[in-house]
Write a structure and sequence with these properties.
The structure holds two protein chains of two kinds. Chain A is built from 15 helices and two strands. Chain A is mostly helical. In chain B, helix 3 packs across helix 4, helix 4 runs antiparallel to helix 11 and helix 13 crosses helix 16.
């Protein structure tokens, strides 16, 4: 009995000693942990705001409970449907078109023999480095109703009436998809390219001896070998399908009210509710909806990824 | 040796890539060309690739009257420098600690980092926390703090780099020689990790230079702290802002008509994007390495 106790004390003492020994390491970890606590964990209790009748004077926790009223109200509006539809459909279009374009470019770059391909790769990556604010200026240069290149030069040369681009919503799904591809193609193609470069060259040599054409090599060697990467990237994007690029949907259309029905996503809705309309509870409800569904989607897609390829899964 | 088909493929490949490369730079050429075109010509002809009448008046105007531009440049440079340094420091230190297998509680701490990648409170709770608890609204911290560590993913990436690329024999030899944990980190681990530190620093630096959201959300009244991105953002919404803040009262009297607004807009955007364009050739190699490193999960 006494023996067991001493062993217990010894064990405890050992652990204390070990913690003491590692004190410098804990000190090193402290700033980062403190930051994550402030930035990521402290806000979490604030999620209850979605279930409250917010009163600024009473604060988040002092405000009266509203149950599910905020959600009932949110989902009774047209907005809930519009922002969900826009977020999902745009992301779906991005996932498919970005993959198709990036794979095509990656294959071309991998097959080109001239040194200049390095230059191509650098140049198409450039838009990725530019802030969305600048992108909105670039788009404005083309689409400005009074002085844009399209209205003033192209349409006037073709004798077509100028278009008020920032007022007419039917063009924006195409514009936003185009801008997204333009900005991200360089980034995405590097990921595919790095995986193509890693392929075993002997497949191609064998195919060449058999007289397989270039198209056949791409169709029967490159694409099948790329399949795991394609599936993995698609699944990871599906995990983030409830999130949108705030800058793309807010800056590029210049926050134009006439375009909301095709540019409003969950992120822009939450922002506007919080800082432009002062409708904090609805904004909080939409944000809660995004966090929750987003979390479920990340977990689900990760389960699928882990089934296919354990090395690529997040956990 | 080369087949006809191979030649056709090469030609088509070059055509596609030239087309894509052009579409990547053409909008920027339009921006630059418009900024050096005379304002009246712009009003008549619109933004164009060939300046019919050359003029540097927009730049002159920006630098003469817009002291807000120079100040915003200063804020952006300071923010990028401080933000990148802080981000690298806390990311590297935390990653180093988590890379030590003997550290008690390592599993829990790693999970706490990892969980931030899975679940996020979103804008409203984050905003409420920062403004009501920490009061960072309208301060420099409002630009700096949110998203300081861009993603928990970088911490985990660096942690596995420390674990795989730095042989434990080296650090053990250092301990035996009497080196403290900090010395081992600063003299051995950090220098060995330089490539990945540079890459992550580059991502953080670009994120800070390009960031406009923090300023947009947290600087509502204190426009003195505007970074160049926030100023540009404000500009495109309201060209009048420049007259109000030019510090030149007589200018405001002349009114909007005298401001070369159409060309000034583009000149401001050129000024904002210039550092990225100048540095790009030097950093893009490292950037590409970073993408392939974090690629799939980034």
């Amino acid at each position: 009995m006494a023996n067991a106790q001493t062993i217990h004390v010894q064990k405890k003492g050992k652990r204390l000693l070990s913690i003491k020994k590692h004190l410098p390491l804990y000190l090193m970890a402290l700033p980062g942990l403190l930051y994550l606590f402030i930035n990521n964990y402290m806000p979490l209790p604030g999620l209850v705001l979605a279930f409250k009748n917010y009163n600024a004077r009473k604060g988040i926790y002092g405000s009266d409970w509203a149950g599910f009223d905020n959600f009932k109200f949110l989902f009774s509006t047209q907005d809930a449907f519009v922002i969900t539809r826009n977020t999902l459909l745009y992301n779906l279009a991005f996932i498919i078109l970005n993959a198709v374009c990036a794979i095509a470019v990656a294959i071309i770059l991998s097959e080109l023999t001239h040194k200049i391909k390095k230059l191509y790769q650098s140049v198409i990556l450039l838009p990725y480095m530019i802030s969305m604010v600048i992108v909105s200026y670039l788009v404005f240069g083309f689409l400005s109703p009074e002085s844009g290149f399209i209205n003033k030069t192209i349409l006037s040369a073709l004798n077509i009436e100028p278009i008020s681009w920032y007022m007419e919503k039917e063009y924006w799904p195409f514009i936003l998809i185009f801008v997204n591809i333009w900005k991200s193609i360089g980034y995405n193609c590097i990921i595919y390219l790095s995986s193509i470069i890693g392929f075993d060259r002997s497949y191609y040599e064998a195919a060449l001896i058999d007289g397989a054409s270039k198209w056949k090599q791409i169709r029967y060697i490159t694409l099948p070998l790329l399949k795991p990467t394609i599936i993995m990237l698609a699944l990871l994007s599906i995990g983030r399908i409830f999130y949108s690029d705030f800058g793309l949907f807010y800056q590029v259309p210049m926050n134009s009210g006439a375009l909301y029905s095709v540019t409003n996503t969950i992120d822009t809705y939450v922002y506007r509710g919080l800082l432009e309309l002062g409708d904090i509870t609805l904004s909080a409800a939409a944000g809660f909806y995004q966090s929750l569904v987003g979390f479920v989607l990340v977990l689900t897609t990760n389960l699928v990824v882990r089934k296919i390829d354990p090395d690529s899964s997040l956990f | 040796m080369r087949t006809r088909e191979e030649k056709v493929f090469q030609v088509i490949g070059h055509i596609v890539m030239v087309f894509l490369s052009l579409s990547a730079v053409i909008p920027m050429i339009l921006l630059i060309m418009s900024s050096i075109t005379d304002n009246d010509t712009l009003i008549r002809n619109g933004y164009n690739f060939i300046p019919e009448k050359f003029s540097l008046y927009a730049y002159e105007y920006v630098f003469k009257t817009g002291n807000s531009v120079i100040k915003a440049y200063g804020v952006s440079i300071l923010l990028t420098a401080v933000g990148t340094a802080l981000s690298i420091t806390i990311t590297t230190l935390l990653a180093y600690a988590l890379s030590k297998k003997s550290l008690p509680g390592r599993g829990v701490l790693t999970f706490l980092v990892f969980f931030t990648m899975l679940f996020n409170g979103g804008l409203v709770p984050t905003y409420m926390n920062y403004t009501t608890v920490f009061g960072i609204k309208d301060t420099f911290l409002g630009l700096l703090l949110p998203n300081l560590v861009t993603s928990g993913f970088y911490i985990l990436l660096m942690k596995s780099y420390f674990m795989t690329s730095i042989p434990s024999e080296i650090s053990e030899a250092a301990y035996i020689d009497g080196a403290s944990e900090f010395q081992t980190f600063s003299r051995i681990a950090f220098p060995l990790a330089k490539p990945i530190v540079a890459t992550i620093g580059l991502f953080a630096g670009i994120a800070y230079w390009n960031d406009w959201q923090n300023g947009y959300v947290y600087l509502t009244r204190n426009t003195d702290l505007y970074s160049i991105q926030n100023l540009l953002n404000r500009m495109i919404q309201n060209i009048q802002y420049l007259t109000q803040n030019s510090g030149n009262i007589s200018n405001a009297d002349i009114g909007l008509a005298s401001i070369p607004s159409v060309s000034v807009r583009m000149a401001m955007a050129v000024i904002g994007v210039l550092p990225v364009l100048i540095l790009y050739p030097f950093i893009q190699g490292n950037f590409v390495k970073g993408i392939t490193l974090g690629g799939v999960k980034g």
